[in-house]
Design brief:
The chain has one domain (11-163). It is 62% helix and 0% strand. It is built from nine helices and no strands. It has helices at 11-25, 30-44, 51-63, 68-72, 74-94, 107-115, 131-138, 142-147, 150-163. Helix 1 runs parallel beside helix 6 (107-115) and helix 6 (107-115) crosses helix 9.
C-alpha cells in the first residue's frame, strides 16, 4: 500500500475525490476539453498552422475523435471544473487543510498538479517541453484565465515542492 495512502478511507471523501478526478481526467473533463481547444483552431482552419503542427494536431484529432460541437463548449466546461476545484480548495482551507480532500495528500492533489500543465505549464527549467506545446497549453483565453485561481496554481506548486520530483523529464 502506498504511503501516504492516496485514496481516502472515508466514503464521502473518496466519492468526492473520484468525482473530481473524473472531472479533471475523464471524458469531457478538463484535460479532454483543453485538448479539444488546442486542436480546434487547426480543425477550423487547417492552414493556420505550419504543416508539421497541422499534421500532428490532425493526427490527434482523429485519434481522440475530435468533435466540433464538443469543442465549442470546451472552454465553458473547463471554467466550470476550475470553479469547482477552487471552491473545494477554499472549503478545505476553512477546515485548516492544505489538501483538496481530507487532511493528507490524495490522488486528486497529484492529478490536479500534473493536469495544470495544460493550462499553465511550469517554467521550462522545471518542465521542459517543445515551445509549440508550451504555447498551445498557455493560450487558454480570457474566461479560463479568469477562472484559473492563483490559489489553485499555488496548490500545484506546493504539491510539486513537497511530493513530486522536479525537474520533470520528457
Amino acid at each position: 500500500m502506498p504511503e501516504p495512502k492516496l485514496v481516502p478511507d472515508d466514503i464521502a471523501e473518496r466519492t468526492l475525490m473520484l468525482g473530481l478526478c473524473n472531472e479533471l481526467l475523464g471524458q469531457n473533463g478538463l484535460v479532454w476539453c483543453r485538448r479539444l481547444m488546442v486542436m480546434q483552431p487547426t480543425m477550423i482552419d487547417p492552414d493556420s498552422q505550419p504543416e508539421e503542427v497541422r499534421n500532428f494536431l490532425t493526427f490527434f484529432a482523429t485519434k481522440y475523435h475530435y468533435d466540433a460541437a464538443q469543442a465549442e463548449g470546451a472552454a465553458a466546461r473547463v471554467v466550470s471544473i476550475l470553479n469547482a476545484l477552487s471552491a473545494q480548495l477554499a472549503a478545505q482551507k476553512t477546515k485548516g487543510s492544505k489538501y483538496l480532500i481530507g487532511d493528507q495528500l490524495t490522488a486528486l492533489d497529484i492529478y490536479w498538479s500534473t493536469a495544470a500543465a495544460i493550462l499553465d505549464p511550469l517554467p521550462h527549467n522545471m518542465c521542459p517541453m517543445p515551445d509549440n506545446f508550451r504555447e498551445f497549453y498557455s493560450t487558454v483565453g480570457p474566461d479560463i484565465e479568469a477562472a484559473l485561481d492563483t490559489k489553485l496554481l499555488a496548490h500545484r506548486d506546493f504539491i510539486y515542492e513537497n511530493y513530486l520530483t522536479l525537474p520533470l523529464l520528457m
